[in-house]
Amino acid sequence: MTAYSDLTAHFGRIAALSNAVGILQWDSDTMMPKGAAETRAESMALLHVMRHGLATDARIGDWLAQAESDGALGPWEKANLREIRRLWTVDTALPADLVEASSKAISACEMRWRQARADADFTGLLPYLAEVLNLQRQIGTAKGEKLGLGAYDALLNDYEPGGSSEKIDALFDDLAAFLPGFTQEVVAVQARRPGTPALGGPFATETQRALGLRLMAALGYDFERGRLDISTHPFCGGADNDVRITTRYDEADFTKALMGVLHETGHALYEQGRPQGYMNQPVGAARGMSLHESQSLLMEMQACRSRQFLAFAAPLMRESFGGSGPAWEAEAMWRRYTRVEPGFIRVDADEVTYPAHVILRYRLEKALIADAMPLAELPAAWNEGMKSLLGVTVPDDRLGCLQDIHWPSGGWGYFPTYTLGAMTAAQIFDAAAQAEPGILPGIGKGDFGPLVGWLRANIHGKGSLLSTDDLLTEATGRPLDAAVFKAHLRRRYVEEV
């Protein structure tokens, strides 16, 4: 056990550095004054280099060889070794100067993106984003050589271990063929429904925040290990046992920020439910981003846009904002939260049109990594794709290719996990509701205990003990099946109206 103990101690130190980076990144995105950006970038770059140095320590290979021959290790320890070897293989593919250059480029690009997004100025962001893209290509190529993968699949592997663009292409081509016709069918069905009265407003930010905190508590969020703040782009971040989420508020419409809070709470519940005994080890990490996105979309889409939840939440909304009349009834809230209407913004998209936003980004980032499209042509290609997939005409780049922080922050290969997550969410929720009959009645009373308890036992508490496919099969009885997602959409948007 000596070699294994040496590995766990070493990766505990790596986790501690990662936690420091997580808090500094959260601060950069929420509270840091603009004037501190250059200094913060230097600090972040140094921490990334230090972490990379630990992650590529030459002793890791020797420790792995010794520990893997130890027949006394249990399943969690063996899985931890598997994850350590996977991470070590990837980390040793990158030279320290590339890690440092990427960190600095990302910090500069993120800060410039905030201004560029506000000004709808892609030209001003272009040189910063070009540098990030250039370094991501280098990173993807270097990792791919070690993993036997193409550059894009090597980047995808960081977010979805075992995933492949070949499988995603087939899935997304199928969805791209299914969704336009289905969307038209849904719009036709909704046109026959009664109209949804306007809620009025304005809705004070502090009141929205108070309602969000109240519902976070109902979902089971542990405020002793996290907090809620504001950022330009909503996210879940922080550190182990310090899981922080953010949202953005619009005083003309409280409904978007509220669902944003519930979405990020789903991410946070996954992080807070990871196995404490392995919290600082690779085996204790969340099992890939499709599963992570499944947990946020399970809470937001499957649970909190259900009739059961809105019957519970509508009276709380009325109480919070002093609302009255038909617009504040539970059925009106359900119609509002299940309204299907193509739009510009991914994070505000409805459940039916959301996959089209992801398909577009996935296709574009694949082309950019492959150098099959000049970066300067991104706005035009984006706008053309939005017209083709969603039928909308993008008025400016703020509502177009500048809306997401993922590419400026180096998150190339992340986007497909959103729709993989939506499919996974439908499958997990369906299995949970069948296995635990108290889940839906509980949601109707604001009691998420049965649902979160099932998720803790079957998803959260498993960490990275199993592969994504094995975890999903064990939890739901089958590997990922797109038919479950399609059946959910048809049931909610066509059959249950």
TrEMBL record:
Pfam families: Peptidase_M32. GO terms for biological process: proteolysis. Zn(2+) binds at residues 263, 267, 293. Keywords: Carboxypeptidase, Hydrolase, Metal-binding, Metalloprotease, Protease, Zinc. Its cofactor is Zn(2+). Gene3D superfamilies: 1.10.1370.30. Transmembrane segments: none annotated. InterPro entries: Peptidase_M32_Taq. It is an enzyme of class 3 (hydrolase). GO terms for molecular function: metal ion binding; metallocarboxypeptidase activity. It comes from the Bacteria. It catalyses: Release of a C-terminal amino acid with broad specificity, except for -Pro. Its EC number is 3.4.17.19. Broad specificity carboxypetidase that releases amino acids sequentially from the C-terminus, including neutral, aromatic, polar and basic residues. Belongs to the peptidase M32 family. This is Metal-dependent carboxypeptidase. It comes from Bosea thiooxidans.
